[in-house]
Prior knowledge:
- By secondary structure, the chain is mainly β.
- Strands 1, 2, 3, 4, 5, 6, 7 and 8 form an 8-stranded antiparallel beta sheet that branches.
- The radius of gyration is 15 Å and the shape is elongated.
- Pfam families: ASRT.
Amino acid sequence: xxxxxxxxxxxxxxxxxxxxxxxxxxxxxxxxxxxxxxxxxxxxxxxxxxxxxxxxxxxxxxxxxxxxxxxxxxxxxxxxxxxxxxxxxxxxxxxxxxxxxxxxxxxxxxxxxxxxxxxxxxxxx
Length: 125
């Protein structure tokens, strides 16, 4: 690409993974997802920190999004340095070594009428 697209620091102020789901797994497992677009010619090395209401932040969670690719990462699947607890409010800050675009998506399947929300994250710089 001629010009980089995106920013290097993003924030998602909202996060919550319901403790239970309704429907077949893994498609209908309630989840939070960070969707990352790396339209650059270089791989994006990403560090994500998780913030909580009542305890210290956890991180960094290290991710790699190859050049000119997208990656949809479920917060439910993050394990290192520790899993994200269910039924707990959280927020996230995402830093990348190249500009990226970040979108946040949630599937809440606690009832048979599923709820899906998606929004672009806050781009800091």
